[in-house]
Amino acid sequence: MRYSQLFGKTSRQVPKDETAVNAKLLLRGGFVDKLMAGSYSLMPLGLRVVKKIEQIIREEMNATGAQEILMPLLHPKSIWNETGRWETAREVMYQFKKGDREYALSFTHEEILLDLVRKHVQTYHEFPVKLYHFSTKFRNEPRAKSGVLRGREFLMKDLYSVHTSQEDLDKYYEEVADAYITVFERIGLKALKVEAAGGVFTKEHTHEFQVLSEAGEDEIIYCPGGDFAQNTEIATVKEGKQCDLGHGPLLKVKAIEVGNIFRFGTVYSEKMNVMFADRGGTRKPAFLGSYGIGLTRAMGAIVEIYHDERGIIWPAAVSPFDAHLVHVEDSGTEPWVKEAYDKLTKGGVEVLWDDRQVSAGEKFADCDLIGIPVRLVVSKKVGEGKVEWKERTSDKTTIVDLATAVKKLSS
Amino acid sequence: MRYSQLFGKTSRQVPKDETAVNAKLLLRGGFVDKLMAGSYSLMPLGLRVVKKIEQIIREEMNATGAQEILMPLLHPKSIWNETGRWETAREVMYQFKKGDREYALSFTHEEILLDLVRKHVQTYHEFPVKLYHFSTKFRNEPRAKSGVLRGREFLMKDLYSVHTSQEDLDKYYEEVADAYITVFERIGLKALKVEAAGGVFTKEHTHEFQVLSEAGEDEIIYCPGGDFAQNTEIATVKEGKQCDLGHGPLLKVKAIEVGNIFRFGTVYSEKMNVMFADRGGTRKPAFLGSYGIGLTRAMGAIVEIYHDERGIIWPAAVSPFDAHLVHVEDSGTEPWVKEAYDKLTKGGVEVLWDDRQVSAGEKFADCDLIGIPVRLVVSKKVGEGKVEWKERTSDKTTIVDLATAVKKLSS
């Protein structure tokens, strides 16, 4: 992609109405645009990042045997009345009337999913059911000040599983927890599995996946040895207490919640009459689990963790491009940069080519702001058939053959 | 994919509350589930079809130089007030208040797109801008009786282009019209480009892409020679009139609108102050074009065109799977079907494997209902290392080597 053609360029201006680092850098880098507080458009660069996160999540969800579907966003009041959440979740849910019909917007999808399940599977041997979708969530956030970390509208992957026993639910719950750790590792986040309260979702304790960050809205107490972590909302111990396993004092830190998992058991199934016939033919309520990852929030969390004073530093797996190709405008080197772009692209490397007529300094500053892991420079000084290789995380530059660069980036 | 594992099986029951063929077959085949009138979940099979349509559209949009983004679905009242459509589109738009804020749901995205454009490009050399997204549209449909052809909520690709002159807009408008014909051809639809009224969108004439079908809600008058087509809403001529070019009498037929394209010119740009500086530095309003294809509607249109009394007949390009593998349960042939599945899958063929313990007759009926283009049977009679090849469009069966089947299906 030629940068001159890309919609959404970098900006030196720091957005005045944003306090969050993720929003400032994503806006300045041309990744997102703000429609209103808590609502952002994904520009081409931002969409590329989110699509990479989405594909990684898809692969890991499929690996657990889950199947992808897509559920509606506009729901009839009647279905929310079945569980009573039309009333209990009024604060967070957008509800409205049109003509003589009342609707709600998806703040979550348990009811819709359970409606699907009760219509389509009836007998024990058709369980467990594991379904997920990538879709939009709407939540009434009175204060939406954390950039893409907390939106009125945001993208989420939500997985639901329905089982014939608590044991089977528990087993899959752990499997999903492991898959979540893998997802977060793959997108560059070290997430802790933290015990937490269920909020408007359930009275049972649940688990959150928290990434340590000063930008986080949550606070957790955890053992640095990794055997204990609780959200302070429910914490039963105090900061500084010695870990029982001898790992030293417990720490209290701020964290960003990037995922959460819930065991609802049969609460909603009983209310919605989601039953299965067991081996003896007896009808019993099914066991529900629910598992979310915010895609746009994950992008924001990555930016909070991976940035410096010059800009974003994308982990390779979620970077919008593999390489940022910069042409220092020396006369006669036009064909060299064209050759570099063509060979990289043919080698399967995703390249953002800064082909603008601006100074090398401006281009380098934009490379640092946008944060693609590898910068490649073509210039007379570097020489024909070669590129200057520089990684975003280092100041070291080396001259490599174009063929070597293609090989390193496509492997 | 093993059919025994797939969520969303076939059903013999004809849905009582549906009159449209597309809805009946998509529901019975396990492609969609109905949440309420005009709103459907995409089950795994249906999502696969929609994803294939989406990818074809993406490729053709990218080929015109357009870039993919993603815009929000929840919009502040203020942006709709800028063009006056908060009032003029009240009927079709879902609008509501939460706290002291008023919102609308996306029934289209011109205003949001123009807001992006005015914030990000200012000078003539940054134009044209060509941006599209795949996203959800919400429209208040009092009568939603045509299955997935007309929804309260549906998936759409909308492309917007912004230009510095009417000529440049006109040129791209024709380019998109050609791309649309290509998209429809690739997904199996023969679409006519038809002159039409602009509805709530514009007072100018626009173009619709219409697929001839008795299930359509539109009526068009057209010349069978292909040089003339108008929606009867605006038609200036009558059925039976001789075509000026000697192609015979004009025909009046029902049709399904699968796409539409609009030239708004500077109407909204003037209202929203979307300006560019020309070569001389003078600020002028920009020229807007808008181009939509309904993805879920396209799926419905395909079903209306391609079905028989036994079920759906998917064109290969949008079929949820390339082949439907059926095992006739003869003892000792278990390894044969496993081998067939593995070799096909390794060859890049997407296979739905009916591994259930039900009669061959039931499996064959399901093949016809689901409508995958090629059915492959493994049985003792067919023999080891071989499959019986039958196409959905024919009753002829032939025995072919497994290797030949892999080769034919993967090419």
Description:
The structure is a homodimer of 411-residue chains. In chain A, the strands form six sheets. In chain A, strands 3, 7, 8, 9, 10, 11, 12, 13 and 16 form a nine-stranded mixed beta sheet that branches. The radius of gyration of chain A is 24 Å and the shape is elongated. Chain A starts with 20 loop residues before the first helix and ends with a helix. Chain A folds into two domains: 288 residues, BirA Bifunctional Protein, domain 2, CATH 3.30.930; 90 residues, Anticodon-binding domain (Rossmann fold, 3-Layer(aba) Sandwich), CATH 3.40.50. In chain A, helix 2 packs antiparallel against helix 6 and helix 2 packs across helix 8. Chain A has eleven helices and 23 strands. Chain A has 411 residues and is α+β, with helices and mostly antiparallel strands. The longest helix of chain A has 21 residues. Helices cover 29% and strands 30% of the residues of chain A. Chains A and B meet through strand 1, strand 2, helix 2, strand 3 and strand 4 of A and strand 1, strand 2, helix 2, strand 3 and strand 4 of B.
Q: For the residues shown, what is the average pLDDT of chain A? A: 95
> What is the CA-atom radius of gyration of chain A, in angstroms?
24 Å
Number of strands of chain A: 23
Q: Largest inter-chain interface? A: A-B, 50 and 50 residues
Annotation field: number of helices of chain A = 11
Whole-number total of structural domains of chain A: 2
In the predicted model, the low-confidence regions of chain A spanning at least 5 consecutive residues are: none
The class by helix and strand makeup of chain A works out as alpha+beta
CATH homologous superfamily caption of the largest domain in chain A: Bira Bifunctional Protein, Domain 2
Q: End-to-end distance of chain A, in Å?
A: 20 Å
CATH architecture name of the largest domain in chain A = 2-Layer Sandwich
Shape of chain A: elongated
| Oligomer classification | homodimer
- Could you say what the CATH topology of the largest domain in chain A is called? BirA Bifunctional Protein, domain 2
Tell me the major beta sheet of chain A.
9 strands, mixed
Approximate helicity band of chain A: 25-40%
CATH class of the largest domain in chain A reads Alpha Beta
Strand content of chain A: 25-35%
